[in-house]
Amino acid sequence: MTPGIRDYLEAVEAGGGLARVRRAVSARYEAAAVTARAEGGPALLFEDVEGSSYRMATNLVGTRERFALALGTVPDSIHDTMLVAIDGARTEHRTAPAAFAQNASSVLGDMPIATHFEKEPGPFIASSVVFASNPETGRQNTSFHRMMPLDEGRLTIRMVEGRHLHRCFTHAAEHGEDLRVAVVVGVHPAMLIAGAYQAGWGEEEMGVAGALLGGGLEMAPLEWSGLSVPASAEIIMEGRILHDVTHEEWMVEMLQTYDYRREQPVFQLERLYHRDEPIYHDILPGYGEHRLLMGMPVESKINGLLRGAAPEISATLSQGGCSWLHAVVRIRKEEGTDVPDIIRRTFEAHRSLKMVVVVDEDIDPDDAASVEYAMATRFQADRDVVIWRDVRGSSLDPSSDQKNLRTAKIGIDATVPLDKRPEGFEMARIPGMESVHLDEYTARG
Fold first, then answer.
1. Residue 197: per-residue pLDDT
2. Which end of the chain lies in a sparser environment, N or C, as judged by fewer CB atoms within 10 Å?
3. What long-range pairs does 367-375 form, CB within 8 A, spacing at least 24?
């Protein structure tokens, strides 16, 4: 069978990257607090969640190393692996028996849906991947959408207007119909990464997952919805997004800030399936796993679209920009390199960006001090700035016009000017410093 979350956890544990939490933990704030403390550290498996028969996994791909493990590669090859999988995506899948068919219900039951932050309106399913049929092509769309329980059988579902699931929902609503969907919780992270990738309209994200996992994905057909979902999934919810019912909600987003209150559609649960001793996957919003899952596929997309713009070029979504709003592009600059065009291409590759900084190959894009150094020594504000006004921005940015999704964007050329004395920009080095270890000089005899 295609690998699932259990196979991934085994691989993480074999590498020493999993911590098992055996004491009883509450899904209300406590699990979130423990996960926040594990930021940059191990994946967690809570084996005793109060009031629940489920186990809970968090921080699965909370580091680039574990993100790479999910792709079967190493951190330096994440983007190449993603781009190869995107190019090699296939729509055909193998049919396999459903591991989740072991248990069936029509209510949420004791699923350990976590409450993360003090001012949120309630608990949220943060790892829910939604499958829906594209009304034009019949292919399946797959995407992340957080869900807030209202009672045992209804949940709000957050959809960004204009994105693919919302387009499917709008098509159904215009015909006076509810949209039948399947919601998946607890899968191999490669499927989450594929679900976070923004494929073109009518393309199947699970084709990318199949390529990442080294072959065709094994899917199980669902009778009620007519959809197919990963056969190795832990939890499946089938139901309808109601075309004429909404409910107010708000949540914490990637910026670790509260989004504004919105009326969102309501999902009506029809059937719930889960494996024996199921593992519920929770993602702590605004922390490493959330940012990497959403940001890294976009980072790969940007890198693919920038190929050829400079002899050597790579883009990084910065941590300070929450892996979403700011990008640093590192290039090997030569005569004829068009930095303003690189800035334009980067903005066009990811419309949520509001700042792009282009630096030379001696600058570390993951080091904010290094990037600021480039701006301090290689940038002139009256010459090296590109500003875009009143353009489409991110719904997450609280400083923008969120109602109309309008913002301003800035591009900064922080590369060495080719018409200046090159020695003036060379960082001086001390020969042999790499082999000097301070403790050998300061240890007491």
1. 85
2. C
3. 368/318, 368/319, 368/320, 371/318, 371/328, 371/414, 374/414, 374/415, 375/412, 375/414
DSSP class of residue 153? S
Domains 72-276 and 308-425 share a fold: no
- Does the pLDDT value for residue 236 go beyond 90? yes
Residue 242 is predicted with a pLDDT of 98
Residue carrying the six token digits 């080294």: 214
For domain 72-276, give the CATH number. 2.30.110.10
Using CA atoms in the order 188, 193, 198, 204, what is the torsion angle rounded to 10 degrees? -30
pLDDT tens readout for residues 63-74:
999 999 999 999
| Pairwise CA distance, residues 322 & 238, whole Å | 33
β-bridge partners, 130? 143, 183
Beta strands at 43-46 and 18-21: parallel, antiparallel or unpaired: parallel
**Helix or strand (DSSP H, E) at 104:** strand 103-105
- Domain spanning 308-425, CATH architecture: 3-Layer(aba) Sandwich (3.40)
Rounded to whole angstroms, how far apart are CA atoms 201 and 73?
A: 28
Tokens for 326, please give them.
Answer: 């700011």
DSSP E strand boundaries for 226-346:
228-230, 235-249, 262-274, 279-281, 313-317, 326-331
Q: Where are the domains of the chain?
A: 72-276, 308-425
From the list 202, 194, 214, 391, the residue with the least C-alpha distance to 298 is 194
**Cβ–Cβ < 8 Å for 216, 94:** yes
Q: How far apart are CA 63 and CA 17, in angstroms?
A: 10
pTM of model > 0.85: yes
**In sequence order, which ranges of 189-338 are alpha helices (DSSP H)?**
189-196, 205-212, 288-306
Distance CA 228, CA 230 (A): 7
CA distance 113 to 199: 28
- Residue range 20-41, pLDDT digits in tens: 999 999 999 999 999 999 999 9
The answer to whether the Cα torsion of 238, 242, 247, 249 is positive or negative is positive
Q: Measure the CA–CA gap between 262 and 110, rounded to whole angstroms.
A: 27
Which amino acid would we find at residue 61?
V
Helical segments of 59-142, H only? 64-71, 78-87
18, β-bridge pairs: 43
Which contiguous run of DSSP H or E holds residue 105? strand 103-105
Residue 14: per-residue pLDDT: 97
Classify the C-alpha dihedral 56-281-216-130 as positive or negative: positive
pLDDT at 443 over 70: yes
Nearest residue to 282 (alpha-carbon basis) of 213, 192, 205: 192
In three-state secondary structure terms, 128 is: coil
